[in-house]
Structure formats: structure tokens, C-alpha cells
Amino acid sequence: MKNKVIITVAPTGNVPTKEMNPYLPVTPQEIVDQIYECWQEGAAVAHIHARDKDGKPTSDVNVYREILRLLAEKKDCNIITQLSTGGRAGNTYTERGQMLCLEPEMASLSTGSSNFPTKANLNDPDTIAYLAGEMKKYGVKPEIEVFDTAMLANALQLVKKQALDWPLQINLVLGVPGSQPATIDQLYFLYKNLPEGVTWTVSAIGKDQVALSTMSLALGGSVRVGLEDNIFYSKGVLATNTGLVKRIKNIAQAMGREIATPDEAREILGLRK
Q1: Are 82 and 104 spatial neighbours (Cβ–Cβ below 8 Å)?
Q2: Which residues, 6 or more positions from 194, have their beta carbon under 8 angstroms from its beta carbon?
Q3: What is the mean pLDDT of the chain?
Q4: What is the pLDDT of residues 124-172, one digit of tens each?
Q5: Distance in Å from the first CA to the final CA of the chain
Q6: How do 169-174 and 199-204 pair as beta strands?
Q7: Is the pLDDT of residue 87 over 80?
Q8: What CATH number is attached to the domain comprising 252?
């Protein structure tokens, strides 16, 4: 399994709009249809954000329930579901974690605060403890979202306190304005500080997505792509989620990496059976 790469698709996110990219899925049906298409192209994990009827980010459990219901109707699709608990879609930690009762296989967990372009990405100790506790309660594996270097160290401290289970799945997020930069030096620094035994993915935001995703592949890591992270395929050319998945799949295969199926990804990530 060491040569297997897990491709995660993040089709929607909180920031992009249809005005920015008309291919962005925002309704539950659009999101599910594009997840299905990306699964057919090799995506093993779907990192899912929800939008309300006005297209705005939401943590509403009922919207997430509808997304999961529609995805379950795709009987042949066994993609791993990873729900977002990010702060842009909810103010309180109970609001942000309300969808965890749906028992997705995974959910995102930021282990510290950082900055976004126009606001703080607040994840205080009480918020982290609550979300981590809810994930344990419902058997959901956290993906640790590392927007800044301290979040990696804090995640390891939470393991020592038994707030998080070992081994960790870590997503190194680079290129969010106000947080760590999308540079080769920063990615290599984080890589060198990853403890043995974790699984890890790279999410590079914007124009550096291809370069840093390729570096992740070269270092033995996995990758996340999708319109959440990059609305352009190339300069001035709008992307689609399937196009971004196809491209990274082709790059990985050209580098001699094998694409993990969802079941292989479950084994790699240690997900519940």
C-alpha cells in the first residue's frame, strides 16, 4: 500500500461562487453528481461542504443529511465521505459539529487558529475539544487540517492527552492568505516534522496546486484537489472538479504512483469497517 496515493476531491468549499466559476456545485444534487463523476475518475475521498438555498455556506445537519442520502442512492459509489466542520459555515462549536451525528466516515478538524483573508479562522481549545469529542462519540475519524505549523504540534499534544486517537490523518493546507505560504520550503519543513506513522495529504490553494501536489506525490504523500482550492485549470481557464481529478491522477500515474480505491484508502487510513 505504500505506493498508493489517495485522491481527495473538495468540490465546493465555502468561498467560491457560481459567479466566480459556473461549474461550482452548490445544491445537494449538484454536489453529489460531481462527487460521483470524480469517484469514477479515481477520487477515493469526498471532502464535503454544504450550502443553503441561497448558496451560502451552512452547517445545517439537514442539508448534509440530504447530500448523504442522495450519495447513498448512487449504489455503486463507495467513496469515503468527509464532512467539513469549518468555522466559515457556523459560529458556535455546537453549530459547526451538528452534522457529526450523521456518522460520516471522516470529518475535518482544525487544531488551532489562523487567519483567513478577511477574518480569523478561530479554533479555540473548547471548540477543538468539543469537535474531537463528538467525532470520538460517533466513530468519525478526524482529518487534521494544518493551516499553520503550530496546528501540527498541537495535534500531537492532543494525542498525548488522548483527545485524539493515533494514528493521525493530516492535511497540510498551504496558500491560504494570512496563513502558511504555498512554497516548496514550507511544505518540506512540514514534511520533515511529520511523525512516523501518520498518513498525510497536501491541499495547495490557487496557482501553486499542481506544483505542490506533485511535490507531495514525490515525497510519498497524497493529494486533495477541487474547486474549493482552485477554480482555475490554468491561467484564465476555469476548472471543473473532474478535470482537476483527472489531471492529478495522470500526474500520479506518470510518476509511478498507483491510485488507491476507496476500500484501499479505508485500509490505509484505518477507517472503521
Answers
A1: yes
A2: 152, 170, 200
A3: 96
A4: 999 999 999 999 999 999 999 999 999 999 999 999 999 999 999 999 9
A5: 18
A6: parallel
A7: no
A8: 3.20.20.70
Please give the single-letter amino acid code of residue 33: D
Q: Is the backbone peptide bond immediately before 125 cis, with ω within 30 degrees of 0?
A: no
Strands 120-121 and 57-58: unpaired
Query: Residue written as cell 468519525?
Result: 140
Burial 233-264 (b: 16+ CB within 10 A, else e): eeeeeebbbbbbbebbbebbeeeebebbbbee
Give me the domain span that covers residue 183.
4-269
Number of structural domains in the chain = 1
The residue behind cell 486517537 is 165
Q: Is the pLDDT of residue 90 over 80?
A: no
Residue 53 host element (H or E): none
In Å, the largest CA–CA distance within the chain is: 47
| Residues 129, 93 contacting (CB under 8 angstroms) | no
Residue 196 C-alpha cell reads as 512516523
Chain centroid to Cα 160, Å, comes to 24
What is the per-residue pLDDT across 108-133, written as a single tens digit (0 to 9) for each? 999 999 988 888 889 999 999 999 99
- pLDDT category at 266 given cuts 50, 70, 90 is very high
Can you read off the three cell numbers belonging to residue 186? 514550507
